[in-house]
Design goal:
Layout lengths: L2 E2 H7 L3 E3 L5 E2 L1 E2 L9 E4 L16 E4 L10 E3 L3 H12 L8 E2 L4 E2 L4 E2 L4 E2 L4 E2 L4 E2 L4 E2 L4 E2 L4 E2 L4 E2 L4 E2 L4 E2 L4 E2 L4 E4 L4 E2 L6 E2 L5 E4 L4 E2 L4 E3 L5 E4 L4 E2 L4 E2 L4 E2 L4 E2 L4 E2 L4 E2 L4 E2 L4 E2 L4 E2 L4 E2 L4 E2 L8 E3 L4 E2 H10 L3 H21 L1
Parallel strand pairs: 4-5, 5-6, 6-7, 8-11, 9-12, 10-13, 11-14, 12-15, 13-16, 14-17, 15-18, 16-19, 17-20, 18-21, 19-24, 20-25, 21-26, 24-27, 25-28, 26-29, 27-30, 28-31, 29-32, 30-33, 31-34, 32-35, 33-36, 34-37, 35-38, 37-39
Antiparallel strand pairs: 1-3, 2-7, 22-23, 39-40
């Protein structure tokens, strides 16, 4: 594909500073970009690379434009970069059809406008709506629903009765609806408690590879609309994750925890069960969230505390050896003074 800088700027609702007639053939990172490439800067710390880049044009924020380059000025360079990538690398449309090597159980409903690859299993009572793509190795349990336009990558498993909304993307190895970890008399009888609920995933959710979402013991585990979940996340039974939230890789969320809207949980953080995290809370990587968190809080550390407090504590940690030495020295002086008296 070839587009002029001016054409790309129009597509991005941006404005051109420099030569709008320059032709762009590809999009690259700022270190690798050369003649004919478009790149972007979304963070001011990378402005120092601007002089060295060979890119023919750079997407920047209005307060980042400079001299000697062709710029496309937009309010949010990272969003514009994503749109430009979609323009230059459009998703290929799959041709509808059901492979003869797929197993569709009697009583399943599969739209003629779905795409079903070889090796897919769709069980009795399941419903696959139009525009759905099921790649090889996908298993859809009985009475499960995969709504319009969703894409399930290879080896995704959706257990019985679980509900997947519209335009959901489940990456390879995702498991939806496995049994919650419920046992009576743990460490003794280990009596399994039947897990009879479901998982409900609302529209426009994306879930990363090898993430697991347990079904509710009763009721539902609920992932609300436009939530984005990274790879290798564990979500336990009856968890609710509010709309537009972000869950980063290797997070573990224990049973019946409730997360509000727009919550961001950093990588390797842990959330204990039966607590509430308010709307728009941000939790730093490796945070240990052990009790309710009020809306709009920023927390860090394990156990978690307000981010400002955690920063003060962390700043003190390197000083502990010197503090110990100072205390030991003071104790010796006090001992000497006591002996003199």
């Amino acid at each position: 594909m070839e587009k002029t800088v001016a054409e790309i700027a129009e597509y991005l609702n941006g404005r051109v500073v420099g030569d709008g007639s320059v032709v762009i053939r590809d999009i690259q990172g700022i270190d690798d970009a050369g003649q004919g490439d478009l790149t972007f800067i979304a963070n001011r710390k990378y402005l120092k690379k601007l002089a060295a880049t060979g890119a023919s044009a750079v997407i920047v924020h209005p307060d980042m434009e400079g001299q000697g380059k062709n710029f496309i000025i937009v309010p949010d360079p990272y969003v514009a970069f994503g749109k430009a990538l979609a323009l230059f690398y459009p998703e290929q449309k799959e041709q509808p059809g059901v492979s003869n090597a797929a197993f569709i159980e009697d009583g399943a409903s599969v739209s003629s406008e779905a795409v079903i690859y070889p090796g897919v299993t769709v069980c009795r009572g399941a419903r696959i709506e139009k525009g759905v793509v099921l790649y090889s190795g996908v298993f859809i349990g009985r009475d499960a629903v995969i709504a319009e336009g969703s894409i399930l990558h290879p080896n995704v498993t959706v257990y019985r009765r679980c509900l997947i909304g519209k335009r959901v993307i489940l990456h390879a190895g995702v498991v939806v609806g496995s049994d919650g970890f419920g046992f009576a008399g743990p460490g003794g009888a280990n009596l399994k408690i039947p897990q009879v609920g479901i998982v409900q995933i609302d529209d426009d959710v994306e879930i990363g590879a090898n993430t697991t979402i347990d079904r509710g013991t009763m009721g539902r585990t609920w992932i609300q609309k436009s939530v984005k979940i990274d790879n290798l996340v564990q979500i336990a039974h009856n968890v609710v994750i509010g709309e537009y939230s972000i869950i980063v890789a290797q997070v573990g969320i224990s049973g019946s925890a409730k997360l509000g809207k727009g919550v961001i949980i950093g990588g390797q953080a842990g959330v204990v069960g039966h607590i509430r995290i308010g709307d728009h809370v941000m939790a730093a990587a490796r945070a240990g969230i052990h009790k309710d968190v009020p809306p709009h809080s920023i927390v860090a550390g394990a156990p978690h505390r307000l981010h400002r407090e955690w920063l003060r504590i962390e700043a003190s940690v390197p000083k502990i050896p010197d503090m110990n030495n100072a205390i030991a020295d003071l104790m010796k002086r006090v001992e000497i003074l006591e002996k003199k008296n």
